[in-house]
Amino acid sequence: MAGAEGVHLPRFIWPDRLDLSPRFLLLLLKAACTGATICLDPVFTRPLCLRILRMLERLRVPIRIRIVTLRMDREGALGPHEIEDHLHACVSRHLQMRFDGQPPLLLDAVRSFLSLALYARIRFVAMVKAATADFGPALHEIHLRYHLANGPLRAFCLDQGFRVSQSPYLAESLRFAVRPILDLARGCAGSILKLRPRGNIDPEKSSLWIEYENNLFPASRSLLFWRPHVREGTYDIVCYLDRDNTPPTPERLEWIGGHGCRWIDFRRPASFSRFSASDVMWLLKTLLAYDRRAPWWFHFFRFKFHLLRCIHRSVYRSLNVKLLIQHQEGSWTQAAQAMALEDAGAIMVGSHWSNYSHHNVSTHLHPQHAYFVWGKVMLDTLRKKGHACRHVLPCGVWMKPDRTGVVLGDRLRKGRSFILAIFDSSVDVHYHQSPARLAFFYERVLSLLEEHSTWAGVAKRKGPGMLRGLRDLPGGDGIVERMLLLQESGRVVFLDHSLSPVTAFMAADLSVCFGFSTVGIIAGAYGRRAVHWDCSGYTAHPLYREKGQQVLFRSLEDFAGAITRAGLGDRRVGDFSRWARDFNCFMDDRAPERVGNFIQRFMTEVVATGDAAATLDRCVARYMRENRVGREFADPSNWWDRETSAESPMAKRGGLSPSRPDADFPDLA
Fold this sequence. Notes:
The chain is built from 23 helices and 18 strands. The protein is α/β, with parallel strands linked by helices. The strands form three sheets. A seven-stranded parallel sheet has the order 8-7-6-9-10-11-12, with helices on both faces. The chain has a six-stranded parallel sheet with strand order 15-14-13-16-17-18, sandwiched between helices. A five-stranded parallel sheet has the order 3-2-1-4-5, with helices on both faces.
C-alpha cells in the first residue's frame, strides 16, 4: 500500500494529462475541499494550467501543488516486461468477467481496443508507484481522464495501493455512441447517391491494395520489399491512403505513380460504400440487440465493428480487391478488415518489421490469412501470444543493403583495425529508453573511440537530423562536439537515416546498439556480430537464459567491456551464430523473391478462378514445398518456454536447408 488508512495521513492526488477543461476546475475544487496536494509532472500538464496554479498559490488560495518528475528509468520502476504483463493480466481479467461467450475475433478486437487505451495509463500508474517511494506514509489517489476503458484499470490501481477516481465526461460517451450511427447514415447516403472515391483506380480490374505510410518506398526496409518480383498485368497495385497524416498531396501522388502504383483516398470509406437493403437491416438489428452482460459501450463497439466490416466488404467487392496488405498492427479495426476481405473473396497478407521483445503485446492483432515471419522465433512468439492467422509462413529477413548507399568499407578501413556500427533508438522521458540513458550510451561509445585511435565508427540514428537530435539530449552539445571532431579526423561517418541499417552493419566489425534493438537482431540474423545495452531491462527474454551468450548486457560497463574485448580480437563477443537460424530461417537474402512469388501466384490464380480460399491453400502448399519447409518449422517446442541450451533446436537439426525436402508439410492453420 502507498499509505495506510488514517485520518491524519497526508493525501496526494495524481492527475494524468491535465489540461484546461472542466476536469481541471473539478480537481481544484476537490483539492480545496479535502486538503489534498495535487502532484504534477510538467510534461503531463499544460503550461497554462501550471500558470493558473502558481497564481492561485500567490493569492493564498488553499490549494497545494507539488512538482514531481515521473520517470520509468528510476531505480525500482517496473520493467517493460512487467508493464506488458500487468496490461495483459488487467485486460484478460476484464474480458473473462464481462465478455464471456463473444466471438473470438471480436474479442481480440476488444482486447486490442482496451490495451491501446490502457497501456499509457498503466505506465503512468507505474511511474507514480515508483515516485511515491520517497513520500513516506500517505494516501495516494490516481485521478484519470475519463475513458471507456478505465473500468479494468480500477482493479490494477487498487492492487498497487492507490485509490482511483475519474472525471465525469458525458461528451466522450456520446461521441462513442453517435459516431458509428453517423457512419451508417453516410454509408446509406453513399449507396443512394452512388458516390465515387477520389483516386485513379480502375474498378473493373482486379487489384492488390497496400496501405500507404510514410516509410513505404525506401527499397531496403519497405513494405513493398516484394515489389520487384510482382509483375502486374491482369491486376493493378493500389496504394490506399487511410491515415490522417498521409493525405493525398501532389508530391505523394507523384511518388506513388513513379513506383507503378495507382491510388485511392480511403480516409472516409463509408461515403462511397455500397450497402444493400439486407446489409442495412442486419446492421439495424445489431444496433438494437443489447447484451446486458457486457459494459454499455460494448453494444456500440460491436455495432461499429460490424459496420466497418460491412463498409469494407462493400468497397472491396465493388472495387475488385483480391489481396490487401496493411501496416496498422496496433489497430483493432484490422480484425474487421480481415473479415470483410474474406466476405469479399479476398485475403489479407502481412509481415512483421520489428523483433518483438515480448509475447504479451496485447495491443497487436494478427488476423492475416497469410503472415510471413523471419523465422521460427516469431512463430513461437505468435503462438505464445495467440493469433488468428490462417497460415504462418517463413520467409527470412527481408531488409537489404541499399544498392545506391555509400561505400563505407573503403572509406573507413584504411589504417583502422576495428569498425563499429552505432545504432540508437527512440527515447522519451516517460519511457524505459530515456534521453538520459541514450546520452550515457553515446558518451561511453565515444569514449571507446577516443581511447582507441585505430577504431572507427558508422553512426546511424533512427530518425532524421543526426546532430540536431543529439543536441536535445542531456549534455548533447558536448556529445555533438566530440562526434564532429571524430568526423573531421575521418573516424566517424554519419549515415543518413533513410538508408538501410544493413548498409551500416555490413561495413562494420561489430554493431553496438542502444536498447534491445531490432537492428542488432537483424545483424545477427545476417551472420554479423552485434551487442545490445539492455537499458530497459528485458531480463525475461530467452536470450538471457542461453549459456555463454555475449549479446545482451544489462550493465553499461559490461556492455563497454564487451566492446573492448571484441576490439582486441575476442570473436565470441556479439556472436549470434547459435540462434541466427531461429531468426532468419533460410540464412539468405531471398525473402523478397519468396514473398513476391507467392503474391504473384495468388493474384494470377485468384483472378482466373475467383476462389480466394482454395487459391490460398494451393499457394501455401506450393510455397512450403518449393522452399523445403519441413516439420522443424512447425515443431511445437517454443523458444519462450524451453530450457537453457547451448544451441538452438533448429540449428541442431540443420535449419530449413533447401537440400532437405520433406514429403509431409505441416498444416500451420
